[in-house]
Amino acid sequence: NHIVNIRVGDAPPYQINKNGELGGISVDYMKIIFEKYNIRYKLVSSDGYSWKQALKSISDKSGIDILLTAKITDERKKNMLFTDNYVFSPWVIFTRDDFSFVSSLDDLKGKVISIENGFVMQKFLKKDYPSIVLKTTSKVNPTQLALKLLATGKVDAYIGNLTTGSYIIKQEDFYNIKVASPTKYGIHKNAMAVRGDWSPLVCIINRELRTMSNEQKDKIKNRYFNVKYEYGISFSYLLKWILSILMISSITLFIVLKINQHLKRKVKEEVEKNRQQQLLMLQQSRLAQMGEMLSMIAHQWRQPLNSLAMINQTIVIKYIRGSLADKDIEYFNENSNKQIQNMSKTIDDFRDFFKPEKEEFEFYINDVIIDTIDMVKPVFMLNNIEIIFEKKEKMKFIGYANELGQAILNIINNAKDALIENEIKDKQIVISLKMDNENIILIISDNAGGIPVNVIDKIFDPYFSTKEAKNGTGIGLYMTKIIIEEHLNGKITVSNDENGAVFKIELKLNN
């Protein structure tokens, strides 16, 4: 007997309030759920309810019944209920193409930054970076105004949500804006806030969000992101970033920008031949170039970046103590170059990831395993994790060595996270390599306690993650399955034994 009042704010593409039209990804979710259960609802424009007024209204049960995106806090839990988090996007730094190199928020000290008034990022920046000058926007369409200030040169940067920022940049043609760097604030998560006496409605929404298929979710998102995008890699910029790697904490998002520039030139060439063919190519490459590329490169670069940071820190400490020796410099030179080469190879691998024509070559699987272990060894040693490789006879294979290395890296990274999270005393990962009549068999096991039975069948699904609290993307094992089964013509399975998870990779001997 209720009509549910749903506030629609201005946070595209999740909430769109433009020229009296109310919509967005979150609104589409609610329409599907409410219409399935015949729940009556009314979309209420945020023009009549500021954010503070909306929070008070839902707390008082006096008008607004649902806020589509809200951060879960202990204070808000006192007066309202929350669904599961269902909106995830990283906090990033946006700058103009002509702006100087930016690797982190520390590079913006003394600069003018646009930010939405009252948003949580304003609070973070005031507290952690008082030397940054904040220029706030508080009118209608605050995020659009903040990005317009950046595009027109009135501010030096904008800090915000990657998904929302990217959507507005496309819609408003702010093509002089780029993603410069991630921030230390990780992933922006939001749930739906529901008035405090409607717990059954929260249960209904959660049930539908959890059971909604990835195809349904992608269909909703594609309504708002099915826009022409042009991507590419600029190798001059790429070289510059690789040479600067030792000085920065994370530059993953920068690669997406570089990809944009090269493909942009390629697309323009194709326009002259056949415009319809160009549009089709853009549609087909969009998934790989946007979401997949970003998540996969981030997943693969995290470990080498950590290793580089540790190597740098060791050299600095020894220098300060006056104990820096020639052998330390040799170790630094050898290992830092190895990490940079691995990261450079990762870029090349991902650039070619979805291309049908790639050159296969002969390699030893043993060497790939050893190289992968060497890459992560500093970080694993720091966390007291022992990696045991039971080396047998050398086993030759024809295929893509780098991709096999990435698959192994994904699995041992997940094992590392599980060992740390479960606080295992004697942390251990065991890798064994053997052969039967038909296959080379690679087994990777850990003693982290295993994968919960209720999710073990889903871990290879795209965007499924058991690591929400640690910002898991759910893309690593999905990518691993693609590499093993589609690129290497193999098979990958997972099970539990008495100690933990056991991943089994089978590669055909006739390769």
Structure notes:
- The structure is a single chain.
- Strands 1, 4, 5, 6, 7, 8, 9, 10 and 11 form a nine-stranded mixed β-sheet that branches. Strands 13-15-16-18-17 form a five-stranded mixed β-sheet, covered by helices on one side.
- It is built from 15 helices and 18 strands.
- 35% of the residues are buried.
- The protein has helices at 25-36, 51-60, 74-77, 120-128, 142-151, 162-172, 199-211, 214-225, 235-243, 252-273, 275-321, 326-351, 365-382, 401-421, 476-487, and strands at 4-8, 16-18, 21-23, 41-45, 66-70, 80-82, 87-96, 112-116, 133-137, 157-161, 177-195, 361-364, 385-390, 396-399, 427-435, 439-446, 491-496, 501-508.
- The chain starts with a strand and ends with a strand.
- Helix content is 46%, strand content 22%.
- The protein is an alpha/beta fold.
Oligomer: single chain
- Assign a percent range to the helix content: 40-55%
Rounded average pLDDT: 81
Total helix count? 15
Shape: globular
Number of strands: 18
Rg, Cα atoms, Å? 25 Å
Largest sheet: 9 strands, mixed
Query: SS-based structural class?
Result: alpha/beta
**Terminal-residue CA separation:** 66 Å
What share of the residues does DSSP label as strand, in percent? 15-25%
Low-confidence stretches: 226-239, 274-290, 353-357
